[in-house]
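Fold this sequence, please.
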Amino acid sequence: MVIGGTVADDSTNEWLSLDQKVNSYPTVRGFTAIGTGGEDFVQAMVVAVESVIQQPIPRGRVKQKLSSRGKYVSVNIGPVQVVSSEQVQAVYNAMKRDDRMKYFL
């Protein structure tokens, strides 16, 4: 299952309930954030994920792509191992602390 939304979305409890019904842990998954700020934003998203999973993310597991006009950058991190739906939610919460993040998947 993929969680997604805008930074303003607040459906945490709903998502946790659904996630616990359809996913089993530990599992491997990726995280995607779309925001502004170029390479600095990319690094901030990597640090956010690493801070929660307590593991370094190998460079080969971080992909980035600029939008056609260059305003936004999409950062895909993973696959990484997560141990619970709460940990997945914690990753998204850490990513959302950056004001430059606009969307997440």
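The chain has a mean pLDDT of 88. DSSP finds three helices and five strands in the chain.
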